[in-house]
Design brief:
Structural class: mainly beta
Strand content: 35-45%
Number of strands: 15
Shape: elongated
Oligomer: single chain
Number of helices: 1
């Protein structure tokens, strides 16, 4: 706020002069920012009490009767500052604790990062390799499927190579995921076979290399039976 004071100065000869004094009162650091620990978003039992973060930095804040504001509209915070990150998109979220003090209004902003990487990794499923590929449009075995390979927490890296009976590579890919990156009986651009051409029926040989969550590298190989009948 601002106070304006007028001072009138006079002397014994009746001379006078007016002086104006302007006093501006401001709040230093009226927006205070504090970071919360990163939180996981795959456990519906996790509830973050944002007030604990505020109290840890500014003891006694809870007695100031503040109001919580979900700045980024996460939709996961209650009016009393409880944040439930379950299934919330990865990212950084801001929550303001607005202290409605007529003398010293201020805001404490809590920053929360939702990060799946801090989530504990549960038991990893053993890979299941389906080696029959029948891309004939009946929605059965349309592609070479390696179950659970797309679980990046358990298998963060992988490569797949496929060879024909003469040892010529007809397909290779990194980060095979059974969807966008998947073998459907086509060469997918190998120099030996035109990309759009369908590979002939027959037996093919695959080599799968992947990294485990523990950091180990594993190689598996076997046969693929390709037919469009």
């Amino acid at each position: 706020y601002t106070n304006v004071r007028n001072w009138i100065v006079t002397d014994t000869c009746s001379n006078s002069q007016t002086f104006t004094q302007t006093i501006t009162v401001t709040i230093t650091n009226n927006l205070l920012t504090v970071n919360n620990e990163d939180v996981c978003n795959n456990d519906n039992g996790i509830i973050v009490n944002l007030m604990n973060t505020v109290e840890a930095q500014y003891p006694g804040s809870s007695a100031l009767d503040g109001t919580w504001v979900d700045v980024d509209n996460s939709g996961a915070m209650s009016v009393d500052g409880l944040f439930t990150p379950y299934q919330i998109a990865e990212g950084t979220y801001r929550f303001n604790y607005v202290i409605n003090d007529a003398v010293c209004p201020r805001t404490i902003q809590v920053i929360v990062k939702v990060d799946p990487l801090v989530c504990p990794i549960g038991p990893c499923q053993t890979l299941v390799i389906h080696n029959a590929v029948t891309p004939n449009g009946d929605d059965l075995n349309e592609a070479f499927i390696i179950e659970y390979l797309d679980n990046e927490a358990c298998y963060p890296e992988n490569t797949v190579e496929i060879y024909n009976r003469w040892g010529i590579m007809v397909f290779d890919a990194e980060n095979y995921n059974n969807r966008e990156v998947v073998f459907k009986g086509k060469s997918e651009g190998r120099s030996t076979v035109k990309q759009s051409a369908e590979l002939p029926n027959g037996i093919y040989f695959y080599i799968l290399k992947y990294k485990t969550a523990e950091g180990n590298y594993v190689t598996k190989d076997g046969y693929i039976y390709l037919t469009r009948e």
